[in-house]
Amino acid sequence: MSIPGRSNRQGFCLINSESFKWLWNPCTSEGKSDFRFRLWMMAGVHMIILALIVVRTLDAGTVSKSEGVAFFENRIRPIFAKHCFSCHSDQMKPAKGGFRLDVPALILQGGGRGPAIVPGKAGESLLVRAIRHESLEMPPGKKLPQSIVAQVVQWVSMGAPVPVGNEPNEFPNRPAMIDHWWSVRPVGQPNPPLVDQESWPRTILDRFILKGLESAGLSPAVRADKHSLIRRATYDLTGLPPTFDEAESFLQDDSLYAFEKVIDRLLSSPRYGERWGRHWLYVARYADTKDGVLMFGDDRIRPYAYTYRDYVVRALNEDLPYDRFIHEQLAADLIRPQVAGWRLAAMGFLTLGRIFDNNIHDVIDDQIDTVSRGLLGLTVACARCHDHKYDPITTKDYYALYGVFASSEKPIELPVIDTSVQSPEARAFEETLKPKREELKAFLNEQYALLSKDAAQRVEDYLVHVVTSEPDPLETAIYFLSLAPEDLRPPIVASWRRFLARRIHAKDPVFGPWHDLMEWLQSPSSKDRQNITTVVDQWKTRDRGTNPGEVNPWVMDALGKMEINAPVDIARVYGKLFKKEDFETTSTDEEFTEEVYVRGRRQIAEIMHGSGSPHFFPKSRTRHYMSRKDKDAFSKMLRERDRLVVQSVHAPARAMVLEDAPQILDPRVFIRGNPGQPGEPVSRRFLEFLSTEYPAAFVKGSGRLELARAITHRSNPLTSRVMANRIWFYHFGEPLVQTPSDFGTRSNPPFHPKLLEYLSWELLESGWSLKALHRVIMRSAVYQQSSMDRVDCRAVDPDNHLFWRMNRRRLGFEAMRDSLLAMGGNITLVEGGRPVDLVNNLDSRRRTIYGLVDRQSLPGMYRVFDFASPDQSVARRPFTTTPQQALFVMNSPLMMQQAKFLEQRSGKQHSSDFKDRIRWLYHTVFQRDVTEEELKQGIAFIDGFQDSSEPTNGTRWSQYVQVLLLTNEWMFVD
Predict the structure, then answer these.
(1) Is the overall model pTM greater than 0.85, yes or no?
(2) Which of 165, 336, 489, 788 is most exposed, with the fewest beta carbons within 10 Å of its own?
(3) Using one digit for the tens of pLDDT, what is the confidence trace for 58-80?
(4) Angle of helix 270-283 relative to helix 226-238, nearest 10 degrees?
């Protein structure tokens, strides 16, 4: 509908003021009787036009360019490196078939047979057919696992995205990067620039905007009218429309600080946390469900996921300083003095990601990616398999963080966080659940004891297997093991391989003889078996100097009693020795003293029973070592326990925490990202290039709290910049840095670098107060500009990067649904609690933030309006304009139901007077008075139904309400 003094909005409306004039022309009774036909015919025409001007249609399979490149770096490049580089890289000169896979720019180019990839069409791609062995057979004589083939197919279906640009061989050092890249320069207070139009700036912030406009020969827009301002501010901060009374109160307030009072009122509203909490939940890739295979119904629900969502809402409402917000999300359990119970739920930030079929390496990769992109604006996960191709992030940096999260684990029993409200019903539920918990605990203890004992007793079998077999990917791919009780545990086999790789060298008192004997067996002299005693005798007679532990006497005794003909014999000697429970307490060889024997016994005991033992594993990891039958039984117990929690409204809330593992991991670089190929050791620490000096190793437990403090340290310039950019983005619809989760060298610098610097400095100076930054932005003249389009400015800056006007924005799905409920008088403003199914339960009155987010099957209603995928941290939601959106607004049960409720409310308010009823509807829907022209149009619409007959698809009043809800004035915010 048209509004005096305003331009009509563009891009979504189905009904505008000119359409109303045509539809409601009451010239003839024939025209009136034909009204309904005209209305829906016109709507159909609008849908066709809308389809022709589609900006971008949402496709469930599409991904952003940055997401596609990240998928290539994390998933596809390691596959090519492991299985293809030996023939199709610079290693083979020339590359076979002229096809190289080691240089991204050459992958799409193909080889002698032409292009190997048809982007977006996996079935037509020669590469896919080759690895499926449908035409060529690649790799030759070896068929890749189906899981690997599926990842390549997925990548090609994405369009085969690859990084574009040079790939530097070495990284700049930190000082050079600070000099040459804007995002890592120290945050300082910039000097406000001088401007010509001194009367326009309201705050220092405005000077930075105005300087950019004047440099481009542009001028800012006039101040928005007060009706637009209160609607803009209310939607920005609460996600709900203002009431008519709130709008009128602001319109009547002529004081200098009228708008500031509105801002303060909205920031103190509980609705603020619900609105801005949703923004953060996208960054945290929040979902209420698991992503396990074959999980349905209540089994797919994470019983306590909602506690993280409620923590975020509460923390924002309380204006928890952003640095503390980060500390609690990474390490609330480690903060001292101990935090209040509800704050423990903050660690859902780390625990609510995908479970990747229990592949711990992918789970940790997801945690690193969420922390680095969400908090630092860096794509650290790209360094999982190789040094980052663009940013100074090495694989050592990646595995330093890997060690932090690998040293943390989720407990089986989560802590209760609402003990203050233990009702009789809650206590009764806990009693009902107690047998399930005890059964689960007893089973876990039993399995842990059984598996630990079996691993110790079968040490000979493990050593024999290690020396007689090559490393198997199954040893680290714990997520698809199917073990029988008699099988060796692949993770323990892998642990023995790593242990022996570290210990077998000529100077080790226990494994030094192993080292020398293996070398002897591989030498020509090994043909003379009698010389085997020479190796043992050399160790016995070795000069021990002042170190009596240089030679382990028990190893010498065992080797002297066995015949050594092959490597397997050495493994059996050591296996039998390690399994030995009782060692003789007296010397058996006069060459060794009693002290040497005692020390040797300790060395063997440490190997068998110490925390670094190859067959040691934390009790919390028992599940990964179980046989298939036992693992299925354990999973069933967990599902039954969780199902009871999901089905009972009386189950007390618990926090999905992490805690430090009993055994803190000393990480090693995984060569090419393969856990079966550990490389050099690294310490748990922060990113090297962001550390003022050489990064200190984390020494307090897992290091999560030290990591959180490093992220928020004043010397780290990224954290404040990233958050300041996000807040600006949600106020203006466009960020200053176009890639909010990537501030690395592939990102474009901000359009207003000094402005971002100023906002970052303000955030730090306010003590990391997000509400203070909201005030800084919303009090500015640039925020209070009109959204009116101007042709001269658009010609110079068509994308409004210089902010010569306010961006007009369409309501997101959450704000649209919440507004419908509020206007229909149906919204229930209850904070927190379990998620509700908004799709299958149209009677739900909860705000949309409390709706169930199903990671496995995101509802179509969500996807139509660009609800971001919860599979990974999301920098910005996609924005599409599609015919499906128009159809939803016209025909969806939700829209029709809420239009009916709004119509019923209007009838209760003014049942007899058409004019008063229309005025009330305008007050409620648009928060303003109806104009005389609009009043006439409304009456004509109601009278347009012949003989006052009601339409079959709702009353004439409900259809009138739906027409109001189809307008751009309601759908867009100026």
Answers:
(1) no
(2) 336
(3) 333 446 666 777 788 777 887 88
(4) 60
